[in-house]
Amino acid sequence: MKVTYLGQAGLLFEKEGLTVMIDPYFSDSVVKVNPKNYRRVAVDERFLNVKPDVMIFTHNHLDHYDPETAPRFINQDSNITVLAPSSVWDQVRKLGGNNNYVIFNRHTTWTECGIKFTAVRAEHSDPAAIGVLIDDGEKVYYVTGDTLYNEEIFGDIPANVDVLFLPVNGVGCNMNKTDAARFAKRIRAAKVVPFHVGMFD
User: Fold this and answer.
1) Other Cβ atoms closer than 10 A to 159
2) Which of 24, 98, 31, 94 minimizes the C-alpha distance to 64?
3) What pTM was estimated for this model as a whole?
4) Would you list the DSSP string of 108-170?
5) 130 alpha-carbon distance from chain centroid
6) The pLDDT value given to residue 201
7) In this structure, what is the dihedral angle of CA atoms 119, 123, 124, 130, given to the nearest 10 degrees?
8) Which residues of 117-140 are buried (b: 16+ CB within 10 A; e: fewer)?
9) Is-contact 22 61, C-beta < 8 A?
10) Residue 87: per-residue pLDDT
């Protein structure tokens, strides 16, 4: 599977014609809530032309579910599967269109074109926040979403994770680098990718 980093906590997964986008943030909407958090990395306009088959939101914060970014991909003309925990699902389905809005809370599994998506626990300020396991039959990818180190998370995670994506910024109820390293050692993935850093001061 090809994986592309979209900035902040955004990821793009592509395999055999299926395109999956997670938590795209392609605006500067956070600055309207917190003037210190202006966007320090320009939007890569190429990503705005992507037509995802599956869109996943991990929780209802502006840099994950962005109401300015979401309608660029989810609208009256799109026909995609949207996987979202209850906090986001209530908002995103208002975009309407011929889209399949699936409520994707912890322990929910959804399979699309042979790829299995499973929502797992995250410990964050949005109590509905989730992480996501993506199993394409060859590798298992674990995107934690925003989370703190919490022992209860590990009971949701299989022993065969190949690639782990986790936050390291240490603010906003996210792991800092020390706890992220401890978390990675517990997961024992073959590859670890730190993210959720560099977008804001």
Assistant:
1) 7
2) 24
3) 0.97
4) -EEEETTEEEEEEE--SSSTT-EEEEEE-SS-EEEE--S----GGGGGGS-TT--EEEEE---
5) 9
6) 81
7) 0
8) bbbbbbbbebebbbbbbbbbeebb
9) no
10) 97
Quote the CA–CA distance of 183 and 187 in Å, as a whole number.
6
Q: Half-sphere exposure of residue 187, counting CA atoms within 13 Å on the CB side?
A: 28
- Tell me the three state secondary structure of residue 183: helix
Whether residue 180 contacts residue 167, with contact meaning beta carbons closer than 8 Å, is answered with yes
List Cβ neighbours of 114 (8 Å cut-off, separation of 6 or more).
Answer: 136, 137
How many other C-beta atoms can be found within 10 angstroms of the C-beta atom of residue 33? 9
DSSP letters for 20-36:
EEES---S-THHHH-TT
Which portions of the chain are predicted below pLDDT 50?
none
Residue recorded with tokens 């919490």? 150
How big is the CA angle at 123 (ends 108 and 56), to the nearest 5 degrees? 45
Grouping H, G, I as helix, E, B as strand and the rest as coil, residue 173 is coil
Looking at this protein, which amino acid is placed at residue 72?
R
